[in-house]
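Residues determine shape. Take a concrete instance:
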Amino acid sequence: MAKLIHVSGKRKRSIARATLKEGKGIIRINNLLLDHFEPKMARMKVMEPLLLAGEDVIKKVDISVMVEGGGIMSQTEASRLAIARCLAQFDKKLKPTFESYDRHLLIADVRRKESAKPGRHGQARAKRQKSYR
C-alpha cells in the first residue's frame, strides 16, 4: 500500500490541507499545477520547502494542497507550511534542514487580526480625535 500523509497548515484566516502520496513529483494547489500558480512571488514562497528538500525526494512524491480562506499571501504561507510538514513527515532527515532555514516552515505563525472594538470607528485601536481649542 502506498504511503499517505495528511497534514494541515494555518496562517491568519487561511487553512491549507495537504496530502502527500508516492508518485512522480506533481505538486498541485487547489487542483492547479504549481507552475501555473500566480503571482510569481507566491509561487517562489511555496517552492522554498521543495528546493530545500532536494530533487531526489520531490521526484518520489505527489503533493495535493487544498487551501481556503484569507488572502493570497496567507493562503501561500499556509500552503508552504503544509507542504513542509508533509515532507518532514515523509523524510525525517529534512526536519533539521527546515528548522535551520526558517522556523515558520514547520511551526505556524499564530498571530491573528485584532478584533474591532465598539465605538471606535471599526478599527481595533482607533480613538476619536480630541481638539482642545
Notes: The chain has a mean pLDDT of 90. The chain has one domain: 4-105. The helical segments are 40-53, 55-58, 72-90, 94-101.
